[in-house]
Amino acid sequence: MSAERISVIGGGLAGCAAALAADARGARVVLYEQRPATSAPTHQTALPAELAGTADLGVEDPKRATGLLKAELRILGPALMECADATRIGEQTLAVDREAFARAVAERIEAAEGIELRREQLPALPDGPVVIASGPGTWSPLARAIHAAAGTGFRFSVIGRPPLIAAESVNLSAAFRAPIYPGAEPALFVPLSEDEAAELAARLRAAECHEPPEFSPQTILAEESTTAERMAADPAVGLGRLLSGPRGPQTGHEGLALCLTPDDADGRAWHVEGLLTTLAPEAQVAALGALQAFSGVRLLRPALVQRAPWLAGPEATLASLQLRRTGRALIAGTLTGVYGYAEAMALGAVAGIGAAKIARGSEPLPPPHECLTGALCRALADEQPHQDGRMLRANFGMLAEHRDDRGLGKSERRKRQIERALKAVRQYVEAD
Ligand SMILES: Cc1cc2nc3c(=O)[nH]c(=O)nc-3n(C[C@H](O)[C@H](O)[C@H](O)COP(=O)(O)OP(=O)(O)OC[C@H]3O[C@@H](n4cnc5c(N)ncnc54)[C@H](O)[C@@H]3O)c2cc1C
Fold it and tell me: Where are the beta strands (DSSP E) in 201-298?
């Protein structure tokens, strides 16, 4: 009996990771992507794996959770990590040239013998094994079909991204390079006067906001922050955090500065770090125009704050990422209630491996609990993992305590957790 064909809905980070992981295991995959015919404001191109926010995939140091997750991903399904390596621009972190990264992924998908990319919007779940990775822009009719298959309703979180500006439209002559804190990736800082900062805050306060539904005063964005206009409106908070410049004595700067992070290898486009706002694009330009260096600023992509739907909890999913009620369907990416590029790719790979198993007639297994990917999958299927309804990020606290680690200091314990995690992922992949 030949293996069933797998459908993957969504050619974002998670869907591409799923399709490539399944292809690497000999599966036949149809990858459905609705762009370019239908596109949400999140994306601007038709390229697969277009990064929705900044171009930084984060640290690689396995002593940090996002670093260990990426180390595990290099074993689970390394294709997207290889694309990131090939387009890397970061010195300390895996920051990539955003467009070159997406092009590299497009080439991998194109070259993969088992993957057929269909530019089509799916309104329903196809027959057979299916990975649902339709991301933050999952709208009906697909959302209704997912609801029916899962038997539970969606929950919602709010995610933001800063504006992307054209370098040639701003005066960067006074800008200096420094890490935002000692040891971080160097960024570009544009010094500001107190008057400019006050005017920026005033323009943010005065402009009309376009907040998503149910964006209450308590709502915290997935980035653990709030919008710039809310910061500006709160005298106790102000724009201090946004404009505090590089932090710590080794960074050699005191005073206000706006931080820019790169989007490409040539310095043509920069993200205005942390400026998450619901203002309309023209109002974003007008607010930034309060700063002398930005008086002619041109937006390449406006800041965006949007609601992201997700399903999680024991009534919805299993630790294998299968929907509890419809075992042939697996979910991945932000749809599982995780935030983060590494999280989206890791869960995508797990769902792809699981779907390949279903296609071969066997049952998917969750990744081992000793690794962060496995711990994250288990957390999603747990009762109350999402504190205050916020999206989950991988963290070392998710790993169960190991009896051999009792009495050890933090660094020795971390070293052993990393060794155990990578060994467990290797065994999981070898046993597949
Ligand atoms: C605005 C924003 C900014 C973010 N910034 C960051 C950041 O800076 N750093 C970070 O770590 N994380 C960030 N995230 C969170 C998260 O890491 C990314 O959203 C990640 O790209 C999610 O991957 P995904 O595959 O789940 O979704 P996506 O990358 O959005 O992919 C989903 C894909 O499915 C397609 N699709 C949807 N419905 C259908 C359908 N019915 N049929 C066919 N195709 C369909 C969409 O067109 C899209 O291409 C951000 C999220 C958002 C929304």
Answer: 257-262, 269-272
CATH 2.40.30.260 fits domain 161-303 = yes
The ranges assigned to domains in the chain are 6-154+311-431, 161-303
Cα–Cα distances in Å, from 351 out to 7, 366, 367, 422, 429?
A: 11, 9, 10, 19, 13
Say which CATH architecture domain 6-154+311-431 belongs to. 3-Layer(bba) Sandwich (3.50)
Identify the pLDDT of residue 386. 67
Q: How many residues does this entry show for the chain?
A: 432
Mutate to test the pocket of ligand 1, among 8, 31, 34, 306 (most ligand atoms within 8 A of CB): 34
Ligand 1 contacts CB of residue 341 (under 6 A): yes
Q: Which residue stretches of the chain have pLDDT < 50? A: none
- Cα 377 to middle of ligand 1, angstroms: 19
pLDDT per residue over 322-350, tens digit each? 999 999 999 999 999 999 999 999 999 99
Q: Best substitution site from 94, 101, 161, 343 to test ligand 1's pocket, by max atoms within 8 Å of Cβ?
A: 161
Beta strands 269-272 and 164-166: pairing type?
antiparallel
| Ligand 1 centroid – CA 396 distance (Å) | 24
Virtual torsion, Cα 102, 104, 105, 107, nearest 10 deg:
130
Give the model's pLDDT for residue 217.
82
> What atom of ligand 1 comes closest to residue 39's alpha carbon?
47
- Residue 15 CA, ligand 1 centroid: distance in Å: 9
308 Cα nearest atom in ligand 1 = 53
Coarse DSSP helix, strand, coil percentages of the chain, rounded to the nearest 5 percent:
35, 15, 45
54 lines ligand 1 (CB under 6 A): yes
Note the pTM of the prediction, 2 decimals: 0.96
pLDDT per residue as tens digits for the range 296-310: 999 999 999 999 999
